[in-house]
Amino acid sequence: MAVTIKDIAAAVGVSRGTVDRVINHRGGVSEEVAARVEQAVEEMGYLPNRAGRILAARKKPVTIGCLLPSDKITFFHDVIRGFFRAERELSDFGVSLRLKEVRGYDPEIHLAALRELLAENVSALCVATIETPEITALLNQTAAEGVPVAAINIDLPHVNRLFYIGSNYLASGRTAGGLLSLMAKGPVSLFVVAGSSNIHSHHLRIEGFAQVMKEKETAYTLVDVQVTQDDSEVAYEATKRVLQEHPEINYIYITTSGSVPGVCRALEELERKKRVTVIAFDDNKENKRLMKEGSIDVLLCQESFRQGYDAINHLFYYLVDGTVPKAEYFTHTVIKIGENL
């Protein structure tokens, strides 16, 4: 049976109000009595009432600073929807968000956005960013100063983050490799469209893919790899050029969703979409439309709404009652084709 404040008060011989003042650090109690209450709390294994602690959070607003490279990348729309659903549900407890949206993965732009958020004295950070020496140092300094840092969608293995929530990029890459191995009929001439060279997670999707292709002994020719910074226009130009130079390409693996519209546009203009099998990521509205039009064969999805919603909730409960989250929350990799979209 759970130990209550009444039990503590009876054991120490003081009022419940005195115990409440000690537990919640409200003062007005002598050092000798406070020490006896704290000893009883420790020895009797008292756990504070979570609801009461959350209600107390109303007196100290919680501001969470969020950074996403979401400008021009529709995948993040559902992440943002998750952010603000959580904010709305927690608003009675004084929770508010500060969202900075940037385009692409320019280190200076990300660094400036992080500094702007920190200048607002946020209670925590929830970020999808890149790892450069400057950004890593800033985030580690922030964590050391008591402001928890959560990594969302893009893991930050060199940052002392509180937790990561998002895709298991190695596993999703392996899934993509397994799918291509099942689909392959005859020679495979592969073109890979990658995201950013500064993001470890993007490398993992290629690494996992290559692992499975090797394990299954699926023969293929890697024709080209283009790094497009998750930018649709860059992807369009690169894809159009590579396809014109290599008419033998019959498979395209796109590791990030921001590049998908540009790749599909190039396939459409060159009248190649019926001759090329496309494996891509994320079921945002734009990618769904492209799949329905026949430009994409397989989408691997990663529960984007859940990433945003759960991240804010984990940070909130950590801040208000010290609930320490797991180090990693991997979302499910969901395979979608035209028939189950």
Furnish the topology, listing elements before pairings.
Blueprint: H1 5-12, H2 16-23, H3 31-44, H4 50-56, E1 62-68, H5 76-90, E2 95-101, H6 107-119, E3 124-127, H7 133-144, E4 149-152, E5 163-166, H8 169-183, E6 189-194, H9 200-215, E7 221-227, H10 232-245, E8 251-254, H11 260-269, E9 277-281, H12 285-292, E10 298-301, H13 304-321, E11 328-330, E12 334-336
Parallel strand pairs: 1-2, 1-3, 3-4, 4-5, 5-11, 6-7, 6-8, 8-9, 9-10
Antiparallel strand pairs: 10-12
Average of pLDDT? 92
Radius of gyration: 25 Å
What letter string, H or E per element, gives the SSE order? HHHHEHEHEHEEHEHEHEHEHEHEE
Q: Quote the CATH topology of the largest domain.
A: Rossmann fold
Pfam families: LacI, Peripla_BP_4
Domain HTH lacI-type: 3-57
GO molecular function, one term: transcription cis-regulatory region binding
Organism: [Clostridium] leptum
